[in-house]
Amino acid sequence: xxxxxxxxxxxxxxxxxxxxxxxxxxxxxxxxxxxxxxxxxxxxxxxxxxxxxxxxxxxxxxxxxxxxxxxxxxxxxxxxxxxxxxxxxxxxxxxxxxxxxxxxxxxxxxxxxxxxxxxxxxxxxxxxxxxxxxxxxxxxxxxxxxxxxxxxxxxxxxxxxxxxxxxxxxxxxxxxxxxxxxxxxxxxxxxxxxxxxxxxxxxxxxxxxxxxxxxxxxxxxxxxxxxxxxxxxxxxxxxxxxxxxxxxxxxxxxxxxxxxxxxxxxxxxxxxxxxxxxxxxxxxxxxxxxxxxxxxxxxxxxxxxxxxxxxxxxxxxxxxxxxxxxxxxxxxxxxxxxxxxxxxxxxxxxxxxxxxxxxxxxxx
Length: 364
Prior knowledge:
Blueprint: E1 9-10, E2 14-16, E3 22-24, E4 32-33, E5 44-47, E6 50-53, E7 62-66, E8 80-84, H1 99-102, H2 116-125, E9 130-133, H3 142-154, E10 158-163, H4 169-177, E11 181-185, H5 191-198, H6 202-215, E12 219-226, H7 234-248, E13 254-258, H8 273-285, E14 291-294, H9 299-302, E15 304-305, E16 312-317, E17 320-324, E18 355-357
Parallel strand pairs: 8-9, 9-10, 10-11, 11-12, 12-13, 13-14
Antiparallel strand pairs: 1-6, 2-3, 3-4, 5-6, 7-8, 7-18, 15-16, 16-17
Helix pairs in contact: 2-3, 7-8
């Protein structure tokens, strides 16, 4: 039974150390806590002899988005997704573009009770095809995300994780078992970048991506936020996309998205469109078939093209779909080449709308 009026629930993935501290094992940060202390994420805390999640059933808000905004270009294109997050994060990215949520330290920023059944029923009532855990990283509210995912699957909804992939080896098994799709933010391709700007390690993120490819059936795409002067060299684009090609193959969609000054990096300029196109060109030369630019208006480089005959398969103008040249099996209508992804017989028609919603009560 779900805790009807509580926001604190027992956490999973922790163990007691010899010195009496408790180590949280949800993510590779492995915070070691005395009684009353919180982890770096702020939402996982030690209470007595256990780790608890302090944000179960509370959200920073609900909004219906196009699935392309996650971004996912090859997962039920054109369909609406109920998106929500909580508060806190297990990374310290200086360029965070959702910092009001991810860096929140006051639990009263979160709304009233939002049970898994309420979320699932609200998504159904608004015609959504999926529920997305986003805005802040769902890894840190694993127990809540899993409970919501179970409620969604019971009523035929899909689930999407938008994550940096910084999750422990044991925890990732349960977490991704309940996800149908994911976008993993591959923030850079050097340990120095992760250490300096995110307080993390590249190897842990790569382990998660390899796990998704080798051990799960989760559809996933990758995003790289390109920051001028930090991760925008041709060498880094080349090394990153060669790794992707070698370990994941040609069919994992890759999104290169534009940075805008935010949080603690207001002194960096916006990403030039030409830098994104250069990254895309390098990725495609290395063999990747589906490479996109994002956060800029560029229909040609945001659309999906057949790697067999060159026909446009899915036209995108921002989040509006135009051309649709896939058959019911997801093959090119001209040459029959399959397009990797999860597609319905017809695209959705949600477009670029962003619609805030209030939860509805779940049926008794």
